[in-house]
Amino acid sequence: MKRLLFIIYFITTVAQAQTFITESGYVNFLSKASLNEFNGESDKLNGLIDLDKNLLDFYIDLNTLETGIGLRDKHMRDNYLETDKYPFAEFTGKMNTIPSLSTGSKSSVTAIGTFKIHGVERQIQVKGTLSKNAKGELELEGGFNVLLSDYNIEIPKLVFYELAEKQEVTLKALFKPKK
């Protein structure tokens, strides 16, 4: 009986050791329009990496994005992202290959999956790096571009709210083993 309990404990511990979560990852978007460049950012990225299932799942509450100007944030949420109807952006995908992660080394990774924002889903590719620190945590950095027209997000016509069609999205997160 003790042996059976040990085997069950070992299996669940090993499985959990391959699943990592974060609730405070960082997301930034950069809009480089001809007359106006600005960033929006949030430190509320939630995510999961399951190495056994090769599953990546991230989401952000778009209401947590801030550009540094309150009125611009309100217009972005109300008029363009329509966060009352579409409060989240989400990516779900898989890595092309799961890297062997040794402590202290960085591995280049590419994930392919579905990005959903503003009620529209599209297949995208996200490139980045994944590393394992001395505490057994995973550190992820990555980025991708979003074309607003691909997601039916209107571009403001007013010059002082000028927004680029292409948004450069970067993310950074520290993932702790799921307990």
- What percentage of residues falls in helices of 4 or more residues? 10-25%
Structural class per helix/strand content? Answer: alpha+beta
Strand content: over 45%
Helical stretch tally = 2
Spatial extent as radius of gyration: 19 Å
Q: Which descriptor suits the 3D outline? A: elongated
Count of DSSP E strands? 8
Give the N-to-C terminal Cα separation: 24 Å
Pick out the low-confidence regions.
1-16
Major sheet summary line:
8 strands, antiparallel, barrel
Short description:
With 179 residues, this protein is an alpha+beta fold. It has 2 helices and 8 strands.
What would your notes on this structure say?
It is built from two helices and eight strands; from the N terminus they run αβββαβββββ. It has helices at 2-17, 70-81, and strands spanning 19-32, 37-50, 55-61, 88-95, 106-117, 120-132, 138-147, 166-177. Strands 1-2-3-4-5-6-7-8 form an eight-stranded antiparallel beta barrel. 21% of the residues are buried. The model is unreliable at 1-16 (pLDDT under 50).
